[in-house]
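2 proteins. here.
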Amino acid sequence: MDIVSPEPITVSVTVLTQMFLYLNSLNVDIDAFLRSLSIEPATVKAPDTRLPLDTYLLIQDEAAHFTNDPYFGLHMGEFAEAGSWSILGYMMMNCKNLGEAFEKSSRYSRIIGNLIEGRAEPRFNRIRVVLATPPHAPKMSRHCFEATISSSVRMMRTLTGVDIHPLEVTFIYPQPPSTAEYERIFCCPVKFEQKENSLSIGWGVVNTPILMANPGLLEYFEKYAQDFLAEMEDPTPHTRAVTKIILAHLDDEDLSIEKVAREMAVSVRTLQKRLEEEGVVFSDLLRDIRQKLAKKYLSENYTVEQITYLLGFSEPSVFRKAFKKWLGVTPREYRQMALSGAE
């Protein structure tokens, strides 16, 4: 019987946006702070990047320690904006009301990560949203849950322009020495040492209109979200990312794994290891891409000189030699076979 490994827990780098906004408000040199953790800033600022959970927790907890802020998660949440939630935030911003935004958030929450999931529990006079983590998630500081609930309240207020107050907020953690910040941010009863981390809102909140609702943009962003999730589920994300870079620089005859690694802001060794985990060798991938495109261009009647330039070969003779090695025929012979349908 095969044992299926649990899905790795990751977080979108866009979640760091609100953290960095908060740190910036405190005049923290963010790049210097990241480098003090041996993290190159470019690696956590590239769009659509997924952070391993241990990296995200390291940044968050060290930032809380660096700022000496026991309410770091609460304060980080106050800087949440649509962009902090990637394409999900923009999709919610174009829904007709909060009820529709909640539905989209539930359906597409994986876009911003699979660490914390909200489970709605309808009650007689309220909707209680319970925050849960995967069984294999490590023990986390209170900042994660406090940032999630604080961000959610901030987003509700930002999207609607209404000062929405939850009915109740609960945390599993012990009550801190002061609850003043919780009361200021949530404006509702906050309970500690409870069984679950949760947020309760009144039923009427779901009908609150969203300021910038736009059905056309919602449709566009939802299609983008669907495509984004499909790509996320691709078992070879690193190969796909490298392929995109190769295609963008294919006319560079000196294209190498070093150049690709530099553009991805990772070391060559790290990139090699990631590709190896997906069963890919960079040199083979580069060769296969060039080979497929060479066949395509020949069948579309490009000249050998044009193909030589497009695929980054130094001169036509070098391309001809490589092509003959790949397929056992010359470019001219291949073109004749392709045109006659004999390939």
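next one coming up
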Amino acid sequence: MKLLVVGGAGHVGKIIRPVLESNEHECTHYDLRPIEGSTCRTILANVNDDAQVNEAVAGMDGVLYMPMGVDPNLTGCAAINTDPSFDVNVKGLYRFLTQAVKAGVGWFCYVSTLSVYQRIYDRDTILTEQEEPDATSPYGMSKRMGEAMCEMYSHGNPQLTMLALRLCHPMNEEGWEQALKRHADKANAGENCRPWIGTHPDSCRQLFAAALHCDKPGYHLIQATGDTQGTHFDHTNAKRILNWEPGQYVTTA
């Protein structure tokens, strides 16, 4: 597949790069920052640059859209504010969707988040994709709007394979071990711990490998978490559409 990867310099992009840059795909990156260690072509541009977007999607078979919509100059909660969230997850996405359809792209994947919900830990029932999102933060709201746009474009272009992946705490190897150790330390100290739902890096890579091979036309909304027991999140769509479910991993924590 001739694949345009938007936001490949970010956190998720670094985790799944081995999948993206495999021999199966001819990969071009589109980002504000260079892709460290990448041997693929990179277009350094803003997602709201019409001319660059138009040029980038031309001739592509698929577009993977995964910028988060945060300010790279800030960290933590301060990074998630109104302007970058809506600029990337609404305005930028709209530009790529519009031009991808015009260019005849047959596969589009939007990387969303379970942050479209508020208080995902405090629910009495297992969460499925059918539950209406309720987040009102700039980040969560902008991601909700992005999902809605993908669904609308899919309805108007039934031949298009349109995926929206709701991720939950995707981690690299170092982050996984650190987070698991913090979780174990709290448990050993007798503190109340939230359920462990972080997504292992190998599980995340397997998810995107499966998504890249999906050729089922229509809009597919899929949540993907590290909840291996299925006590909080339902993975029926992930299993049915992508043949994916979170894996069990032995760790040093």
